[in-house]
Amino acid sequence: MKKTGLIIATLLTFSQAEFTRAESGIVTDSQTQLQWQDLYADNNVPRNYGDDAIDYCSSLDLDGTGWRLPNINELKSLLVDTQFAPSINEVFQSTVNDWYWSSSTRKIDSDYRWVVNFNSGAVSIRPRINNNYTSYIRCVR
Length: 141
Hints:
Layout: H1 2-15, E1 19-21, E2 26-29, E3 35-37, E4 47-48, H2 50-58, H3 72-76, E5 99-106, E6 109-117, E7 123-127, E8 135-136
Antiparallel strand pairs: 1-2, 2-3, 4-8, 5-6, 6-7
């Protein structure tokens, strides 16, 4: 019975995430205090290869530095399981309904990174370095 209560409490915690968007284009998760990029040059969300996405985030200067590519669990925390097309919280104004990179690699083959689709809510893997596989980028700090 204790395990069931813990699972329910955990599910409730994830479903109650609250986000606020600042004029700077930064969205803050009130539970985790993570700050998410939601402002892009010329309103173009960058699309790149897996390893280049890490470089993009580490060089980002949006109201300060310290940005990085999120891990898969952080990225999945933006999904809203009761929404579809888009399946991301509506506070995010600059989202392409497509695949986004995470920094997490596949445990059995580090040539692949985990990705999240903000159209369908799907989670999958893509090759880190392959000219045929690019995904969008949303940085976190």
